[in-house]
Specification:
globular, 71% helix, mainly alpha
């Protein structure tokens, strides 16, 4: 259980403690309930869900994802891990929104577990860890209610948090090699992992210069190898969709400050 306030704490302190804990549990319960109700909704919750189901269909039929664009199929500009993992769920539950959303929902729950474990190990207390999970659940509507939709985002976040957890609390070379492999899986789920992985690498170099070689070597070799292999399999179309097309998005300088002030700090 979360740590209870000391016996000499005032009544107002204890009341506030229990009120915040109650609100935290409420947010978690509401998120799981809403996501559960949306799981079998027969129509798109977000405009890319139908396309994600098409990608899983291609995986199950043995077709390549990254091919020349056509009227029949044009792939998304994302790396493929989410579609292949969702294909496993679709094998068990059938192809459709439910199996893909289930992967996202389980990933979001896994994120909550990792957040709890990270904060517990950093603070040695369960109360702030419980609040951290509640904050994550409370951010569900702020994020556009994307935690449970048929998109790669929650799986990407889970693998990224897994990288952070392993590299933060592992004191061995093997742990840092494992963290690099987690980062590769995060990249194979969504490209922004490259930015996050670089930031983690910088922190790792500062904190553990020698062991950082294990993380960086593992991440660079596995990510680089996966890019070469996927490019070979798809005859160069992998890099075209995953790197070239996203690079043509316009830059929005106003978001450099607007993201932190308007999108993040204001709602929090």
């Amino acid at each position: 259980m979360p740590r209870v306030p000391a016996e000499n704490s005032g009544r107002a302190t204890k009341l506030l403690y229990h009120l915040i804990l109650l609100l935290t549990v409420w947010y978690v319960v509401v998120f799981v309930a809403v996501a559960g109700l949306r799981l079998n909704y027969p129509f798109e919750l977000e405009w890319m869900e139908g396309g994600a189901v098409d990608h899983v269909n291609r995986v199950l039929s043995g077709q390549k994802l990254y091919v020349s664009p056509s009227l029949e199929f044009t792939p998304f500009i994302y790396t493929p891990a989410y579609f292949y993992i969702s294909a496993i769920a679709a094998k068990l539950l059938g192809v459709g929104f439910t199996s893909l959303r289930l992967v996202s929902l389980l990933s979001a729950i896994g994120c909550g577990v990792l957040i709890f474990r990270i904060v517990v190990r950093e603070t040695k207390q369960r109360y702030p860890a419980t609040l951290a999970v509640g904050l994550f659940a409370a951010s569900y509507p702020i994020s556009g209610a994307w935690y449970d939709v048929a998109r790669a985002d929650s799986l990407f976040l889970l693998l990224t948090l897994g990288t952070v957890y392993v590299i933060r609390f592992s004191a061995s070379w093997r742990g840092h090699v494992l963290a690099g492999l987690f980062m590769c899986l995060a990249f194979l789920t969504k490209q922004p992992a490259l930015v996050v992985g670089l930031a983690i690498g910088v922190c790792c170099v500062i904190d553990h210069p020698r062991r950082s070689l294990a993380y960086l070597g593992s991440a660079v070799l596995s990510i680089g190898g996966s890019i070469v292999l996927l490019n070979y399999i798809h005859e160069g179309w992998f890099s075209y969709y995953v790197f070239k097309l996203p690079s043509q998005h316009p830059l929005l300088p106003e978001m450099l400050a607007g993201y932190w002030t308007r999108d993040l700090m204001a709602p929090l």
